[in-house]
Design a protein that fits this description.
The chain is an alpha/beta fold. It is built from eight helices and eleven strands. Strand 10 (about 175-180), helix 7 and strand 11 (about 215-220) form a beta-alpha-beta unit.
Length: about 260
Protein backbone atom coordinates (compact mmCIF):
# COMPACT_ATOMS: atom_id res chain seq x y z
CA UNK A 1 0.00 0.00 0.00
CA UNK A 2 1.31 3.46 -0.85
CA UNK A 3 2.54 5.99 1.66
CA UNK A 4 0.23 8.89 0.93
CA UNK A 5 2.16 11.31 3.13
CA UNK A 6 5.21 11.26 0.84
CA UNK A 7 3.32 12.80 -2.04
CA UNK A 8 3.09 11.87 -5.70
CA UNK A 9 3.92 13.40 -9.03
CA UNK A 10 0.84 13.75 -11.24
CA UNK A 11 0.98 13.51 -15.06
CA UNK A 12 -2.11 14.66 -16.99
CA UNK A 13 -2.39 13.85 -20.68
CA UNK A 14 -3.97 15.75 -23.54
CA UNK A 15 -7.33 14.78 -25.00
CA UNK A 16 -9.49 17.84 -25.75
CA UNK A 17 -12.87 17.65 -23.96
CA UNK A 18 -11.95 14.21 -22.63
CA UNK A 19 -9.78 16.23 -20.24
CA UNK A 20 -12.87 16.51 -18.05
CA UNK A 21 -11.88 13.04 -16.83
CA UNK A 22 -8.89 14.70 -15.13
CA UNK A 23 -11.31 16.56 -12.88
CA UNK A 24 -12.94 13.31 -11.80
CA UNK A 25 -9.56 11.74 -11.07
CA UNK A 26 -8.54 14.79 -9.00
CA UNK A 27 -11.71 14.29 -6.98
CA UNK A 28 -10.72 10.67 -6.38
CA UNK A 29 -7.21 11.74 -5.38
CA UNK A 30 -8.64 14.11 -2.79
CA UNK A 31 -11.16 11.51 -1.60
CA UNK A 32 -8.25 9.16 -0.88
CA UNK A 33 -6.20 11.90 0.87
CA UNK A 34 -3.33 11.64 -1.60
CA UNK A 35 -0.83 14.48 -1.62
CA UNK A 36 0.31 15.81 -5.00
CA UNK A 37 3.72 17.48 -4.92
CA UNK A 38 4.43 17.94 -8.65
CA UNK A 39 2.23 18.26 -11.73
CA UNK A 40 3.18 17.81 -15.39
CA UNK A 41 0.55 18.40 -18.04
CA UNK A 42 0.10 18.38 -21.80
CA UNK A 43 -2.55 20.40 -23.65
CA UNK A 44 -5.87 20.17 -21.74
CA UNK A 45 -3.97 18.26 -19.05
CA UNK A 46 -1.74 21.30 -18.65
CA UNK A 47 -4.78 23.58 -18.32
CA UNK A 48 -6.46 21.41 -15.67
CA UNK A 49 -3.12 20.91 -13.94
CA UNK A 50 -2.44 24.65 -13.86
CA UNK A 51 -5.83 25.42 -12.34
CA UNK A 52 -5.19 22.83 -9.62
CA UNK A 53 -1.57 23.86 -9.06
CA UNK A 54 -2.67 27.45 -8.51
CA UNK A 55 -5.17 26.46 -5.85
CA UNK A 56 -8.47 26.02 -7.65
CA UNK A 57 -10.65 23.38 -5.97
CA UNK A 58 -12.01 20.47 -7.98
CA UNK A 59 -15.48 21.98 -7.61
CA UNK A 60 -14.27 25.28 -9.05
CA UNK A 61 -12.52 23.55 -11.94
CA UNK A 62 -15.64 21.54 -12.72
CA UNK A 63 -17.78 24.68 -12.68
CA UNK A 64 -15.33 26.35 -15.07
CA UNK A 65 -15.45 23.35 -17.41
CA UNK A 66 -19.23 23.55 -17.59
CA UNK A 67 -19.13 27.29 -18.22
CA UNK A 68 -16.69 27.17 -21.13
CA UNK A 69 -17.98 27.57 -24.66
CA UNK A 70 -15.16 25.81 -26.50
CA UNK A 71 -16.07 27.31 -29.85
CA UNK A 72 -15.86 30.75 -28.26
CA UNK A 73 -12.21 30.05 -27.44
CA UNK A 74 -11.39 30.12 -31.15
CA UNK A 75 -10.29 33.35 -32.80
CA UNK A 76 -9.90 33.50 -36.57
CA UNK A 77 -6.22 33.87 -37.40
CA UNK A 78 -5.72 32.82 -41.04
CA UNK A 79 -1.97 33.27 -40.85
CA UNK A 80 0.50 31.19 -42.83
CA UNK A 81 0.98 29.01 -39.74
CA UNK A 82 -2.57 28.32 -38.51
CA UNK A 83 -6.30 28.73 -39.07
CA UNK A 84 -7.05 30.03 -35.58
CA UNK A 85 -5.43 31.79 -32.67
CA UNK A 86 -6.02 30.42 -29.18
CA UNK A 87 -5.36 33.77 -27.56
CA UNK A 88 -8.69 33.43 -25.73
CA UNK A 89 -7.10 30.70 -23.63
CA UNK A 90 -4.83 33.42 -22.25
CA UNK A 91 -7.86 35.56 -21.48
CA UNK A 92 -9.46 32.62 -19.66
CA UNK A 93 -6.32 32.06 -17.56
CA UNK A 94 -5.95 35.76 -16.75
CA UNK A 95 -9.57 35.89 -15.62
CA UNK A 96 -9.51 32.80 -13.41
CA UNK A 97 -5.91 32.59 -12.19
CA UNK A 98 -4.35 35.93 -13.04
CA UNK A 99 -1.37 37.19 -15.02
CA UNK A 100 1.00 34.87 -13.20
CA UNK A 101 4.29 33.06 -13.68
CA UNK A 102 4.55 29.28 -13.73
CA UNK A 103 7.21 29.26 -11.03
CA UNK A 104 4.79 30.94 -8.61
CA UNK A 105 2.44 27.92 -8.51
CA UNK A 106 2.02 26.50 -4.97
CA UNK A 107 2.41 23.03 -6.52
CA UNK A 108 5.44 22.85 -8.87
CA UNK A 109 4.15 22.77 -12.44
CA UNK A 110 5.64 21.64 -15.74
CA UNK A 111 3.97 22.33 -19.07
CA UNK A 112 4.84 20.17 -22.07
CA UNK A 113 5.20 21.72 -25.53
CA UNK A 114 6.91 20.87 -28.81
CA UNK A 115 9.45 23.02 -30.65
CA UNK A 116 8.02 22.82 -34.17
CA UNK A 117 11.39 23.81 -35.63
CA UNK A 118 13.53 20.98 -34.26
CA UNK A 119 10.62 18.71 -33.18
CA UNK A 120 11.94 18.33 -29.65
CA UNK A 121 10.15 18.43 -26.33
CA UNK A 122 10.25 21.74 -24.50
CA UNK A 123 9.23 21.55 -20.85
CA UNK A 124 8.27 25.00 -19.59
CA UNK A 125 8.82 25.62 -15.89
CA UNK A 126 9.20 29.40 -15.83
CA UNK A 127 7.59 32.40 -17.42
CA UNK A 128 4.09 33.50 -18.29
CA UNK A 129 1.55 30.79 -17.52
CA UNK A 130 -1.02 31.83 -20.11
CA UNK A 131 1.51 31.89 -22.95
CA UNK A 132 2.83 28.45 -22.00
CA UNK A 133 -0.69 26.99 -21.94
CA UNK A 134 -1.47 28.53 -25.32
CA UNK A 135 1.60 26.76 -26.69
CA UNK A 136 0.79 23.40 -25.12
CA UNK A 137 -2.73 23.53 -26.61
CA UNK A 138 -1.70 24.71 -30.09
CA UNK A 139 -2.66 21.76 -32.30
CA UNK A 140 -0.56 22.15 -35.48
CA UNK A 141 -2.55 23.28 -38.49
CA UNK A 142 -5.46 24.40 -36.35
CA UNK A 143 -3.80 26.94 -34.06
CA UNK A 144 -0.91 29.26 -34.78
CA UNK A 145 2.33 28.32 -32.98
CA UNK A 146 3.32 30.44 -29.99
CA UNK A 147 6.57 32.35 -29.65
CA UNK A 148 8.08 31.59 -26.24
CA UNK A 149 11.71 32.25 -25.27
CA UNK A 150 12.76 32.52 -28.93
CA UNK A 151 11.18 29.16 -29.75
CA UNK A 152 8.15 28.44 -31.90
CA UNK A 153 6.02 26.07 -29.83
CA UNK A 154 2.99 23.85 -30.48
CA UNK A 155 1.02 21.07 -28.77
CA UNK A 156 3.17 18.99 -26.44
CA UNK A 157 1.25 15.87 -27.39
CA UNK A 158 3.48 15.50 -30.43
CA UNK A 159 6.35 14.45 -28.18
CA UNK A 160 4.85 13.42 -24.82
CA UNK A 161 1.10 13.29 -24.46
CA UNK A 162 1.11 11.65 -21.03
CA UNK A 163 4.14 13.31 -19.39
CA UNK A 164 5.22 10.51 -17.08
CA UNK A 165 8.82 10.66 -18.29
CA UNK A 166 8.99 14.36 -17.46
CA UNK A 167 8.30 13.47 -13.83
CA UNK A 168 10.85 10.68 -13.92
CA UNK A 169 13.48 13.03 -15.29
CA UNK A 170 13.06 14.98 -12.05
CA UNK A 171 13.83 11.87 -10.03
CA UNK A 172 10.23 11.49 -8.86
CA UNK A 173 9.78 7.80 -8.09
CA UNK A 174 6.08 7.70 -7.20
CA UNK A 175 3.73 8.91 -9.88
CA UNK A 176 0.12 8.92 -10.96
CA UNK A 177 -0.52 9.23 -14.69
CA UNK A 178 -3.96 9.94 -16.10
CA UNK A 179 -4.05 8.67 -19.68
CA UNK A 180 -6.88 9.71 -21.99
CA UNK A 181 -5.47 7.89 -25.02
CA UNK A 182 -7.70 4.84 -24.80
CA UNK A 183 -9.91 4.53 -27.84
CA UNK A 184 -12.84 6.89 -28.04
CA UNK A 185 -15.50 7.75 -30.56
CA UNK A 186 -14.71 9.98 -33.52
CA UNK A 187 -17.46 11.11 -35.80
CA UNK A 188 -17.11 11.15 -39.58
CA UNK A 189 -15.26 14.41 -40.37
CA UNK A 190 -17.40 17.12 -41.91
CA UNK A 191 -14.71 19.74 -42.52
CA UNK A 192 -10.96 20.33 -42.63
CA UNK A 193 -10.72 21.07 -38.91
CA UNK A 194 -12.32 17.75 -37.96
CA UNK A 195 -10.03 15.88 -40.36
CA UNK A 196 -6.98 17.45 -38.69
CA UNK A 197 -8.29 16.88 -35.17
CA UNK A 198 -9.15 13.23 -35.82
CA UNK A 199 -5.71 12.69 -37.36
CA UNK A 200 -4.08 14.38 -34.38
CA UNK A 201 -6.02 12.21 -31.97
CA UNK A 202 -4.98 9.06 -33.85
CA UNK A 203 -1.35 10.11 -33.66
CA UNK A 204 -1.59 10.68 -29.90
CA UNK A 205 -2.95 7.18 -29.39
CA UNK A 206 -0.02 5.73 -31.31
CA UNK A 207 2.65 7.82 -29.58
CA UNK A 208 1.35 7.66 -26.02
CA UNK A 209 3.23 4.56 -24.91
CA UNK A 210 5.27 5.29 -21.80
CA UNK A 211 7.48 2.98 -19.76
CA UNK A 212 6.35 2.59 -16.18
CA UNK A 213 7.70 0.85 -13.13
CA UNK A 214 6.31 -0.80 -10.05
CA UNK A 215 5.62 2.51 -8.29
CA UNK A 216 3.77 4.11 -11.20
CA UNK A 217 0.00 4.30 -11.07
CA UNK A 218 -1.76 4.49 -14.44
CA UNK A 219 -5.39 5.63 -14.53
CA UNK A 220 -6.95 5.14 -17.96
CA UNK A 221 -10.71 5.80 -17.94
CA UNK A 222 -12.68 3.97 -20.61
CA UNK A 223 -13.84 6.87 -22.77
CA UNK A 224 -14.82 4.89 -25.87
CA UNK A 225 -18.37 6.16 -25.98
CA UNK A 226 -17.46 9.85 -25.80
CA UNK A 227 -16.64 12.28 -28.58
CA UNK A 228 -13.48 14.23 -27.77
CA UNK A 229 -14.98 17.44 -29.12
CA UNK A 230 -18.54 17.36 -27.77
CA UNK A 231 -18.81 19.65 -24.75
CA UNK A 232 -22.24 18.33 -23.72
CA UNK A 233 -20.44 15.19 -22.50
CA UNK A 234 -18.39 16.97 -19.81
CA UNK A 235 -20.46 15.89 -16.80
CA UNK A 236 -20.49 12.23 -17.83
CA UNK A 237 -16.78 12.23 -18.69
CA UNK A 238 -15.97 13.71 -15.28
CA UNK A 239 -17.97 10.96 -13.59
CA UNK A 240 -16.16 8.23 -15.54
CA UNK A 241 -12.84 9.75 -14.47
CA UNK A 242 -13.93 9.74 -10.83
CA UNK A 243 -15.16 6.15 -10.91
CA UNK A 244 -11.97 4.86 -12.53
CA UNK A 245 -9.81 6.96 -10.24
CA UNK A 246 -11.53 5.55 -7.18
CA UNK A 247 -11.25 1.99 -8.51
CA UNK A 248 -7.50 2.26 -9.01
CA UNK A 249 -6.62 4.34 -5.95
CA UNK A 250 -8.64 2.16 -3.56
CA UNK A 251 -7.04 -1.06 -4.81
CA UNK A 252 -3.37 -0.26 -5.10
CA UNK A 253 -2.30 -3.64 -3.76
CA UNK A 254 -3.79 -5.21 -6.89
CA UNK A 255 -0.94 -4.75 -9.37
CA UNK A 256 -3.26 -5.44 -12.29
CA UNK A 257 -4.88 -2.06 -11.71
CA UNK A 258 -1.64 -0.28 -12.52
CA UNK A 259 -0.53 -2.38 -15.49
CA UNK A 260 0.81 -0.33 -18.37
CA UNK A 261 -0.25 -2.94 -20.86
CA UNK A 262 -3.90 -2.54 -20.03
CA UNK A 263 -4.18 0.99 -21.44
CA UNK A 264 -2.87 0.52 -24.97
Amino acid sequence: MMDKDDGYGLALSGGAILGAAHIGVLKAIEKNDIKINHIAGTSIGAVVGALYAFGKSTEEIEDLAHSINFKALLSISLTKLGLFSNVKIAKFIHEHIGDVKIEDAPIPLRIITTDITDLEKVTITKGNLAQALMASCAVPGIFSPIEFDDKLLVDGGLVENAPLQTLKELGIEKTITVCLASRHMHRRPKNLIEVIMNSHSCMLQMLNKESCGENDIIIAPNLERFNAFKSSEIENITEVGYIEGMRVLKNLDDKSTISCGSIY
